[in-house]
Design a protein that fits this description.
Helices cover about 30% and strands about 20% of the residues. The protein is of the alpha/beta class. The chain has two domains: about 80 residues, no CATH class; about 140 residues, Response regulator (Rossmann fold, 3-Layer(aba) Sandwich). A five-stranded parallel beta sheet has the order 8-7-9-10-11, sandwiched between helices. About 30% of the residues are buried.
């Protein structure tokens, strides 16, 4: 059965055996931790939207039956797509995941990353990008909002990264390539949960833009990172 959380739109695949036929099932969304309930199983029911609390049923955490990223896995049916090999780099090497499919932009992005000594791993599809993100850590993610024909309002990779726990998310510098937003517009970057934005008209200046954005990012987090290091937390 396909179950969707009304609060955060996370989607879970739950086997029918886990859904009681005679009473509601109480659950906790593993993404937003909100209480949820789903009604008794019906033979004709193939998808259920759930939200709110129920007075009866079996308590269960949906994280037990669906491993994150649950929403992406259900939407794209990528359970078997997680076959990307682990990328092993030399200690201290910086890595970047490039989710850009426009040939000209891709060339400029790769050149800029090479000049800044990043190892670039290029994803050719949304499924491949999700696979790489699941099994590898990247210091930087370069994402075109229209990657693989998607839109700025419904970008799968962005939706995957936005709800990440902050302890994981702060280790990734996410730059969004946008047609509408201005380059290094901090307000728009914050509104879209990314670290920096570069307009498509400025991609030819990617190295300079990226250098400035990374420098600002390091300055912003310097005190925080120094404190964590002093406390042994990083």
């Amino acid at each position: 059965m396909r179950i969707e959380c009304n609060h955060c739109q996370a989607v879970f695949n739950v086997s029918d055996e886990k859904i009681p036929k005679d009473r509601p099932l109480k659950a906790t969304c593993s993404r937003c931790r909100r209480p949820l309930s789903v009604g008794p199983t019906q033979e004709s029911q193939t998808a259920v939207r759930m939200g709110g609390e129920s007075s009866g049923g079996l308590d269960v955490s949906l994280s037990e039956v669906a491993e994150p990223p649950t929403a992406i896995a259900a939407d794209l049916d990528i359970t078997s797509a997680y076959d990307s090999p682990l990328e092993v780099l030399e200690e201290g090497a910086m890595s970047a995941l490039v989710c850009v499919d426009d040939p000209e932009r891709l060339k400029l992005v790769k050149e800029a990353l090479d000049d800044l000594n990043y190892y670039s791993s290029v994803a050719t599809s949304v499924k491949e990008a999700l696979s790489k993100l699941r099994y590898n850590h990247y210091d930087l993610v370069m994402l075109d909002e229209e990657f693989c024909g998607e839109t700025a309002d419904n970008n799968t990779i962005l939706r995957y990264l936005q709800p990440m726990p902050m302890s994981t998310r702060r280790r990734i510098f996410l730059m969004l390539i946008s047609k509408e937003m201005r380059t290094l517009d901090n307000l728009m970057a914050f509104a879209n949960s990314v670290n920096a934005v570069v307009n498509t008209s400025d991609v030819q200046k990617m190295k300079l833009v990226l250098e400035r954005a990374l420098a600002d990012h390091r300055r912003f987090y310097k005190v925080y990172i120094d404190t964590l290091q002093a406390l042994g937390g990083i």
